[in-house]
Design a protein that fits this description.
The chain is of the alpha/beta class. The chain is 34% helix and 28% strand. It contains 7 helices and 7 strands. The protein has helices at 21-32, 79-82, 89-92, 121-130, 158-163, 169-192, 194-201; strands spanning 2-6, 39-41, 46-57, 60-71, 95-105, 109-113, 136-143. The protein has a 7-stranded mixed sheet with strand order 2-3-4-1-5-7-6. The radius of gyration is 16 Å and the shape is globular. 39% of the residues are buried. The model has no long low-confidence stretch (mean pLDDT 95).
Length: 202
């Protein structure tokens, strides 16, 4: 079974903020694949949706069970949500975490495996909780670009206000398209494998 974790902060206040890009994409994946409605699971401290997805890897039909977690722990304690499920390095290989990335522009995604946190508090929390970084991540860009393609990334004290601030209307529309792209990447990782997905989406 694959455990898909969409990072963000819980509650309506944060629903359409930049730091919730991972959560938005995970919800999109659950909806597109007609998984069960999200319900609160106290053991995992998360809203949980589950089901199966099917597809073809070459000529072979593949069906995999999936569970989608939306941690209700706030970002810097995301590890509390996955710790009861990911109890070994082997199980970590079936963990896929989706999260925002300040160093990438809105509209871009990147798939990583077994890499450092890049300073992301949610990823740091998960690494501490499961004692490995050998899991898959999908990073989603949240920084705006100028018309010439240069990123307008905040710095210093402005960063926190920026990441917990809401997407602008046009940015949110772009984020929803990106969530669909991340959902497609998730499906490819699960059905056809991480390497194929990296070659396609990175």
């Amino acid at each position: 079974m694959y455990i898909i974790t969409g990072l963000g902060n819980p509650g309506e206040k944060y629903a359409e903020t930049r730091h919730n890009a991972g959560r938005i994409a995970a919800e999109c994946f659950a909806k597109q694949n007609e998984l069960s409605d999200f319900t609160l699971n106290k053991k995992y401290q998360s809203l949980v949706s589950s089901g199966e997805i099917s597809g073809k890897a070459g000529k072979k039909k593949v069906t995999e069970k999936v569970m989608v977690l939306l941690p209700e722990t706030f970002m810097n304690k995301s590890g509390n949500a996955v710790k009861p499920l990911i109890t070994s390095v082997k199980k970590a290989e079936h963990l896929i975490v989706i999260h925002d990335d300040l160093d990438m522009p809105i509209g871009k995604i990147k798939i990583l495996f077994n890499r450092g946190s890049g300073g992301h508090k949610g990823i740091e929390s998960i690494k501490r909780a499961i004692k490995t970084e050998a899991f898959t991540r999908i990073k989603i860009g949240i920084s705006p670009e100028t018309p010439s393609g240069k990123m307008r990334k905040p710095n210093g004290e402005k960063i926190l206000d920026f990441i917990v601030g809401p997407f602008k209307k046009d940015e949110l529309a772009e984020m929803k398209k990106t969530a669909k792209k991340a959902s497609e990447a998730l499906t490819m990782i699960i059905i056809e494998g991480r390497e194929r997905a990296m070659n396609t989406f990175n």
